[in-house]
Known about the structure:
Helix content of chain B: 40-55%
Strand content of chain B: 15-25%
Strand order of the largest sheet of chain B: 2-1-3-4-5
Number of helices of chain B: 6
Shape of chain B: elongated
Oligomer: heterodimer
CATH superfamily of the largest domain in chain B: Response regulator
Largest interface: A-B, 27 and 22 residues
Number of helices of chain A: 15
Largest sheet of chain B: 5 strands, parallel
Radius of gyration of chain A: 73 Å
Low-confidence stretches of chain B: none
Number of domains of chain B: 2
Largest sheet of chain A: 7 strands, mixed
Distance between the termini of chain B: 41 Å
Mean pLDDT of chain A: 81
Helix content of chain A: 55-70%
Amino acid sequence: MARCLVIDDDALFRKMSHDVLSSRGHEVIEAETGRKGLLAFHEKRPDVVLLDLVLPDISGYEVLSDLVRTGQSHRVIVTTSDFSLDSALRTLREGAGDYLPKPFSEEMLHMSVERVMRRLDLEKRTQGLSLSLQHRLGDLATLQQLLMLMTSSRSMDERLREALGMACRYMRSEAGSLLLHDVRSDELVFQASVGPVAEKLAGRRLARGQGLAWWCLEHNQPVRVNAPAADPRFDPTIDQLTGAGTRNILCAPIVVQNQVIGVLEIINRLDADRFDERDEERILEVSTAAAAVVHNFFALRDLQRSRSELLDWSRRLERTVEERTQALREMDQARRVVVHELEKSRNAIQQAQGMMLEQEKMAALGMLAAGVAHEVNNPLGFVKSNLSVLEQYVRSLRRLAGVAMHAANRIAKASPDVLNRLFEEMGRIVQEEHLREACDDLDPLLDEMGHGITRIAAIVEQLRYFAEDGKSSDQPSVVDLEEEMSRLLDLTRGTRRREFATDFSHKVPARAPVARLRQILLNLLGFFAASEGAQPVSIKAGAHAGSVCLDFLDPACKISDEDLPRVFDPFFAPRGGPFPGALGLSAAQGLARSMGAALTASRDAKGSLGIELRLVAGDEARPTAGGSRT
Amino acid sequence: MEQKEKKFKVLFVDDEANVLNALRRSLRKEPYSFFFAQGPEEALEILKEEDIDLIVSDHLMPAMDGLSFLKMVKGLYPSVLRVILTGHADLQLAIQAINEGEVFKFLTKPWDDLDLKITLKNIFDFIDLRRENQILLETVKKQQNFIQRLESEHPGILDVKRDESGAIVLDEEDL
């Protein structure tokens, strides 16, 4: 139904219009002059105006112009009895909604009113649509900007502030704040603010339960308060501190992955004095966008932090690796120095050991040489002495021979006196020179000299034999151990302190390189001969499957069970005292190993030291046992 | 004089008869009495019988080495001088022999006959000197005893008074 204003000076026409329009349920207002009509229009705001062009005070054209100015001319239906095409076109061009010439039927009036009403309705609807379209476009622009912010590279606060500014524009509000929940202190922190007191709010904290923001967070739902003073959930202290005047306020939770991480506050609607349900919907849109921004930012920040942490770690790791590498390199260097020193020491020790072994070898050789010297010096002594006596004998005999030859030459011519004197002379010489004894002594003297020279020759022969064998002695050959042993015992007799008792009832040919074997036997003799003892050292030959052995047993040398394995240490010294010849024993073991023989120590029931030399048997049957000694 | 008529007695000890024979030959004209033993045991028998002045011993002998033997002789007959004659020219042995005072001289084989004779001569000169020294010392002692006895019987008898010119002053009271 419409409200209709009839402006006409004809009372009858007004009555008739009133009746017709009322019959259809319309409300009718009447005015008899133009001025009264305009007044009624502004007061009553009618939907439709019936306007007569001929009026007593101002013309209908003037009224129409007035309504055109306020944009209401399309509500006007021009009614006139003075119909002309010209006036009709003029009024319609002016903006009148319809033109209805008098007289008109009831039906024509209804149709005209309906037409105007329909147009008004269309206009109104078009206007609403256009308005919402404009809002939508604005919203879209805002959301687009928010979305663009999400991916921008500016700082969080800057972006939040910018987003908040947009949200405020979107919400047509004066101020806004974004509060984030600090989980560690359980406080809400003003992360970003826009509006008149934004600077005073920055960084402010709200303890749990303080103000509307906390209510919103705890209940996880938007809240709107249009009369803060009357609402107990609102905390006025912030306003008191900042000097802000909150007239109305709207809060929405910011939810990221089902968790409320903060609250969005929008304060003081600009174009109205309250927030309505529609605003609640809109703030949810904004808070969702804000959540996306915050989440995105956090994700990015986490990512950046992780990345920088990773980089940091990587750098730290690199540094650690570098340090470790350096340390390792230094350790390696130090190790190398130590190893070098150790090697040097080892070489020195080996050299010293080698020298001592060499000296020990020389000592063994020295024993042999001293033995030889003694064996040679004794016969040499008496041969030399006998020689000088022989010279004296010869001199005496020559003196006698001189006189005898003189006498022999003269025996025919000389007088008996002269001859007698010569004989007397000879007799005196025999007396003086003890020639009788000398002649008696000549045979034993020459005998003994010959004996001595033979002995020396024999020793030299033995030495020559040693020397000869030295050349080819490194090849194994069959060796008669008894012969070797007795030869060495002969040669060293002069220098030994100990006696040796040999038992070669077993004939034991062994197969060994002769020179090395001799060195071993010499070292063993040297070892046993170095110690003192009344009882002789026994040497017994024996044979086992595939091998022959020489067993030395020294009843004077006692050894403990714990010392036994150390007998072959080059510098072994038992607690009991010195152990001369240990180096020689050690060298002998090394030599034995080098030729596939074994030198082992044992201890008999009385604790006496036994040394066994085990050698490969030199059986005739062995195909390799070729060599007889040459 | 009594000492010169007495011949010095030398005992040689060696396990080798050839060595003893050679020594006997080369020293046959020397004015000493020689005794020969083929080992320590035989030598000790001779020492019991004879007043030996000098022993010349080999070192390396089967039963007992020369140094030990000479040590033993030193214990039994301290006045007998001891000499080693060995073919085993061991410096260690020589040092030991001389340091331990067992031997007077250390000779090596082969020996030089002239050297040996000079050594014997030196040793007997030494013995002569020692003996003479001993006799002189005994004489001095005897005279000292005599003087002491004289002094105790006639006190002041040994004091000799002299005047400024050094002339002996006789005590008139004693005359």
